[in-house]
Every structure is written in structure tokens, then in C-alpha cells.
Amino acid sequence: MSNASIAHHMLLFACDAVEGNLLEKGYWDCSHHYFSCKNMRTLYAWAKNADSTALPQDVGIRIGRQWKLQYLVLQVHYKHPISPESEGDESGFRIHVAQEEPIYLAGLVILLRFNLTIPPNTEKTHGNMNCILNTTEPLIPFAYRVHTHNLGSVVSGYYLKSGQLDFEPIAKGNPQWPQAFYPMEHEIEFHPNDTIFAQCTFNTIGYNIETHIGFADQDEMCLLWIMYYTKSRDPKDQYILCPGEHFEGLNRALPLDSDKPLPRNISLEERASAHDQHAMLQQGMYYLKIVSNGLDVLVNNCIN
């Protein structure tokens, strides 16, 4: 529950340990203690007044002591500095916890860039990512989310089936719209040894400063999140990171329109920057069904 005038974006992590002094304090500074949540795994994210996400039927996210994911940590990147004692901020997620195990487990593939130099006054600068899926079972994607800061114009995703040469589209999104998990436009199934690709396009026309990847608002980010479900119980099939290019230069073969922005949508652009507190609180109700096994729930605000 939040709105974009207070929180730019929020992240929900699971991890197996948190430093004792930070547990007692109840919050910490992102810049100095970003990795204080040990063996951190991202579960969910929200930004720019996005709508809620519902998991498909018979799908849940596994957490708990048995899986070394015994803490939940909420990280809030505030639009403006606040103090831990600030009143009136109720930013967060509403979570449903269940004991019974579902048929499928949900997971995330996150394609991201850790480094990129974006020159000023340039119409198109690409941040490319690709990797092979070393999974044990098929993955069924059902939603995607794109994320950049202010200079991103479009984020596109594709995959290559093992042994084939034709790119299949996964997703295409405008990061200046509400950064929700949008449903897949067509059915997709990833198989072991398929290759996935993502490309962020940045437009710096009229922007006179060189920009780099970083956590600050004046920096940039480049991510494509793919939410999926699978029958696999192998922990490595529930969370997959794809940083940078495992095959440098391969993204040059992507379709020519991969960096073409989507048509403008004034309604979504206005909603992404809206400041109507009441409207955003109504839109900001988030429901995640989580399979629990001895979970200690800890939800902490992280102050920038």
C-alpha cells in the first residue's frame, strides 16, 4: 500500500539471516546495509502507482526456515527523504500466508545490468542482457515487469528455444508507465537450455550529463523481471539471476524493432506520476499467497 508521491518503488526480499543489531533497530540505511539481509532473494516489486498482482490458481511462493528463507524484509525507496519516525506513511504489501503446499511454485527470472555508460544527447543507448536457463524443469511465465529510472524509453525481452535461431518475444514495456507485473500477451514455456534476452533502451536527448547504473534517482537501472511457475522443487529453479551478457554481442541479432518505443498512453503516463493519495491507496493493495514453513516475518523499512 503506497503511492508514487511517497515511495518511488518498493522491494520485498526473503533471506535466512539479518544482523542482530539491525533486527533490534527495526530499519536500516540502504546505502550502508544493502546486503544485511543474508542470501537475499527478491520476491516482489512495485513502482509508479502500479496495480496489484494475483498469482494464478494453485501457485504459491515457498519460504520458511526449512528453505533458509526465514525473514521477509521490505525495502522502500522513498521519493523524498523521511525520518524513521515520520507519521502518515503506510507503505507496504499485504501478504496472505498459507500452510498447504500448492501444485506449482512461483519464481522470478531477473535480467539486469550492473554497469553501463549512457552518453548525453543520444537517442538510443542499449543495455543488453542474455543467459542460458540451466533449469531442471520447464518454467511457465505468466507476468513481466520492466524497470529503469527516468531515461528509459523501452525494455524488451526475447528467448531462443534450444537449437533454434528464431527469436520469440517475451515482453515489451514502457518503464515510464506504472511498473506493474503485466500479464503475458501469449502463452510461453521455457525449457532447460533455452536462451533468454533483454534490452533496455535509454534516450538522453536534451540531457547533458553522462549517466551510469546505480541506486540513486539520478542514476539509471536496467531490469526485466519475469514471474513464472513450475512443478520443480529444486531451489535453483525458483530464483534465477541473469546479469549482463553471457554471450557478448549476441543481442545485436535481436529484431530491428526491439528498441522501438510503444505508442504513447496518456492515461498510464498520468497514473505513473499521479499524486492522488486516496486513489493510489485503493490501487495499492497487493496480495501474494506464500507457502510458509516455520516463517519468522520481519518487515522493515529501508530509508534512503
Give an overview of the whole structure.
The chain is mainly beta. Helix content is 8%, strand content 39%. The chain is built from four helices and 21 strands. It has helices spanning 20-25, 30-33, 266-272, 277-283; strands at residues 7-15, 17-18, 27-29, 37-38, 41-47, 59-64, 71-78, 94-98, 104-112, 117-118, 125-132, 140-147, 152-160, 168-173, 182-183, 195-202, 211-212, 223-230, 239-243, 287-293, 301-303. The strands form six sheets. Strands 6, 8, 9, 12, 15, 18, 19 and 20 form an eight-stranded mixed sheet that branches. β13 (152-160) and β14 (168-173) form a beta hairpin.
Outline: globular
Mean pLDDT: 83
Which range does the strand content fall in? 35-45%
Low-confidence blocks of residues: 275-304
Tell me the total number of β-strands: 21
> What sequence of helices (H) and strands (E) makes up the elements?
EEHEHEEEEEEEEEEEEEEEEHHEE
Separate helix tally: 4
**What separation lies between the terminal Cα atoms?**
19 Å
Oligomeric state as shown: single chain
Ordered list of secondary-structure elements with their pairings:
Elements: E1 7-15, E2 17-18, H1 20-25, E3 27-29, H2 30-33, E4 37-38, E5 41-47, E6 59-64, E7 71-78, E8 94-98, E9 104-112, E10 117-118, E11 125-132, E12 140-147, E13 152-160, E14 168-173, E15 182-183, E16 195-202, E17 211-212, E18 223-230, E19 239-243, H3 266-272, H4 277-283, E20 287-293, E21 301-303
